[in-house]
Amino acid sequence: MNTASATTDYVLGSSDQEHDRLIRQAKTLAPYTERLFRDAGIGPGQHVLDVGSGVGDVALLASGLVGETGRVVGVDRDANALAKARARAARAANVRFIETDLSPQQREAVFSRLPPEYATRFRGPILPTETIPVHMMNVFTEEAAREEPRESIMHLLRYIGERLAASATASGARQIENRAERGQKNLTIDYEEVLRERMIVGTPGRVIDRLQEVREELGLDGILAELNPGSLIPHAQVMRALELLCKEVMPQFK
Ligand SMILES: C[S@@+](CC[C@H](N)C(=O)[O-])C[C@H]1O[C@@H](n2cnc3c(N)ncnc32)[C@H](O)[C@@H]1O
Predict the structure, then answer these.
(1) 154 and 202: one domain?
(2) Which atom of ligand 1 is nearest to the CA of 104?
(3) Residues 14 and 80: beta-carbon distance below 8 Å
(4) Would you say the CB of residue 125 lies under 6 angstroms from ligand 1?
(5) For the segment 148-181, what is each residue's pLDDT rounded down to a tens digit?
(6) Which amino acid residue places its CA nearest to atom 16 of ligand 1?
(7) 104, 123, 142 — which closes off a domain?
(8) Nearest CA to ligand 1 atom 2
(9) Cβ(53) to ligand 1 under 6 A?
(10) DSSP structure string for 212-248
(11) Which of 116, 156, 165, 189 supports an S-S bond with 183, CB 3.0-4.6 Å?
(12) CA pseudo-torsion sign 143, 145, 151, 157
């Protein structure tokens, strides 16, 4: 077991604040994670390995799906996260957590068993720069739509910026990641530039136009929608944004 670099080269760190954020994030994503797992065929009696199990939310969800005859093993190198995960899973007899710091070779061994399209995505940087978050608001003027997620988006960028900057000289940080420069950029970028260069925010009409533009520019054939960047957008608005995305935007791209 090697925990020497446990908290140094993982950009989002292992603070209580990060653990709380993981729990909030898991709660929002739970229905989608569960559907993904069911679609992937996870069910009674199966054995699941959760790599990077954090405070245990995904492992606990899998534990419910595999049932009494199945097993879930979560591995993580963050001892504090594991202590919380074990406490939360105290009543789930089919889950256990193991502390270990997976080497790049071990991670490679896991990723090499994934289908190529996933393997490529997960091998990349933790926060891939090619991701284009999409958010749509439940309002009808562009001005109001633009302003509603401002606080949450800027909170997210500052959060990532602080962590990138703080981990720039940590052992395990690779030069190719440019953490100092990317951290500084996230700490100083203003909202106008975010909307120009990084994110698509607006009414459905505006989102359709921008997606058409980026599709032509970048040759995209799919998007990953980030409906609550920063986690500060109220649940009702996130659900409304999802509804608008499905009912008004998606039909334009079929
Ligand atoms: C996004 S968090 C986990 C989220 C978690 N699966 C959940 O259900 O909320 C990623 C986790 O990977 C762990 N991690 C990162 N690099 C690791 C490594 N080399 N070996 C083991 N754990 C690692 C971190 O400590 C962190 O807890």
Answers:
(1) yes
(2) 19
(3) yes
(4) no
(5) 899 999 999 999 899 888 888 877 777 777 888 9
(6) 10
(7) 123
(8) 54
(9) yes
(10) HHHHHHH--S-----SSTTS-S-HHHHHHHHHHIIII
(11) 165
(12) negative
Between 26 and 7, the higher pLDDT residue: 26
Contact 72, 83 (CB under 8 A): no
Distance CA 75, CA 102 (A): 9
Q: Give CA 187 to chain center in angstroms.
A: 20
Q: Give the Å distance between the CA of 123 and the centre of ligand 1.
A: 14
Tell how far the Cα of 121 is from the centroid of ligand 1, in angstroms: 16
User: 74 CB less than 6 Å from ligand 1?
Assistant: no
What tens digit of pLDDT does each residue of 197-250 get? Answer: 889 998 888 899 989 988 888 887 778 888 888 888 888 888 888 888 888 888
Q: Is 82 in the pocket of ligand 1 (CB under 6 A)?
A: no
Tell me the C-alpha distance between 139 and 74, whole Å.
42
Domain housing 184 = 134-253
| Average pLDDT value for the chain | 81
Report CA(234)–ligand 1 centroid distance (Å).
Answer: 26
Any idea what the CATH number is for the domain that residue 115 is in? 3.40.50.150
Q: Do 38 and 118 sit in the same domain of this protein?
A: yes
Q: Per-residue pLDDT tens for 100-120? A: 888 777 776 666 665 555 545
Atom of ligand 1 minimally distant from the CA of 7: 25
Domains contained in the chain, number? 2
Statement: residue 133 has pLDDT above 60: no
For the entire predicted model, the pTM comes to 0.55
